[in-house]
């Protein structure tokens, strides 16, 4: 089936779902409300916007509270604590549903691609109404209809897909910025990681579809975009007419109205010299590169199946620092991978000190069923993990603070994102290099790019003052 006919099919189900929601509205005497809660990464958040787009079209009002007529949890399974959060909150949803029997509960996202999870929900969470996975999210309207027409739990999980269904409705969380999927899935199989198993094989969207989507976002007032993929540096390799990520960026740069371009995530093994040159020459690509290290020990990197050594990583980081000195570099690090010793953690700390990360997300290794690392017999004890983790975290935080402080006194442009949560006389903006700055202002500035003076460094963020609209 072509993706156009699939899109048309889904629009048919949107009309049908509307009738179900209308009927519910009559019964309730008000417009039904729904909630979509995201547990995962930016790609997961983008999927939630697709769900929200359909929910809005079929007649629901989207609300922040989970005290709703329909609640959807878009789950993540990258680490076990993400799973535990979902189970915990399901208990709370159940107590709500007992008071409101018409309430519907749906689960989707990465966790649902795991057989063990489905078994557990079937057994212990019978009150869930609809379960679907990552590969068939495009048929959400159809699944909603099935849910309304069925008494039992509806489960529809696909093992994999090669389809990319375009042009379905999307409801963005922010009016001025948006994520855009440029590729789906992952082929890297890092030995600790479950993503390739729950997101399927890597497939790139056509440059034409990507550009068209960004053009329509720009026409709709979006000024900042983030190109999303598990490994954007391998974008386009499997297209009929292959195209590199660097060349895609050159095309995106030309789109009028887009002022800022971000992307996530870059795998160090595929970062090309051409990409460094595009970033260097670009007026729009933000001065921020997220370059996950995972470990600074070549031995551990090898066991992780990362395909680079400590020295190779350092060489890339050095190239970037030399070519684009104002580029901030951030990273992800895992502590406690099977077989990791405190000496290995020292290697990681050494990389942190040398690269001088502007920020780093540090994670404790979480054993994911079905991954190669889960069956390695040299799992690390909790005490050793904790010792290494605490030591690393301290260095990461000190380095990040030092880097942030370097901007003190500078004048930079910031995109205003929101009114400050603690004090509504202030707004919060983001610099090109991803640093946050708070300064006096009001809601009328949201979505605008303004010039700010970075007056006072408060650890990881700044207090500033607006000079003018840029
Ligand atoms: N595709 C991205 C990362 C996606 S997952 C990349 O390759 O960089 C985001 C982060 O979660 C990873 O960078 C890694 O640091 C962390 N992570 C993934 N699996 C993990 C696991 N089993 N335990 C702990 N952290 C993990
Ligand atoms: Fe996971 Fe590695 Fe793929 Fe990133 S590149 S999603 S860490 S397997
Ligand atoms: Fe989590 Fe899936 Fe993203 S496992 S990190 S939501 S791709």
TrEMBL record:
Which residues does the annotation say bind [4Fe-4S] cluster 2?
186, 190, 193
The record's remark on the cofactor is:
Binds 2 [4Fe-4S] clusters. One cluster is coordinated with 3 cysteines and an exchangeable S-adenosyl-L-methionine.
Q: What class of enzyme is it?
A: transferase
Q: Pfam families annotated for this entry?
A: Radical_SAM, TRAM, UPF0004
Domain of life where this protein originates: Bacteria
Please report the stretch or stretches of sequence annotated as the TRAM domain. 405-468
Q: Does the keyword S-adenosyl-L-methionine apply?
A: yes
Q: What is its EC number?
A: 2.8.4.3
Give residue ranges for domain Radical SAM core. 172-402
The answer on whether this UniProt entry bears the keyword S-adenosyl-L-methionine reads yes
- Please give the cofactor(s) recorded in the UniProt entry for this protein: [4Fe-4S] cluster
> Which residue numbers delimit the MTTase N-terminal domain?
32-149
The record's keywords, sorted A to Z, are: 4Fe-4S, Cytoplasm, Iron, Iron-sulfur, Metal-binding, S-adenosyl-L-methionine, Transferase, tRNA processing
Give the family from UniProt.
Belongs to the methylthiotransferase family. MiaB subfamily.
Q: How does it assemble?
A: Monomer.
User: What is the protein named?
Assistant: tRNA-2-methylthio-N(6)-dimethylallyladenosine synthase
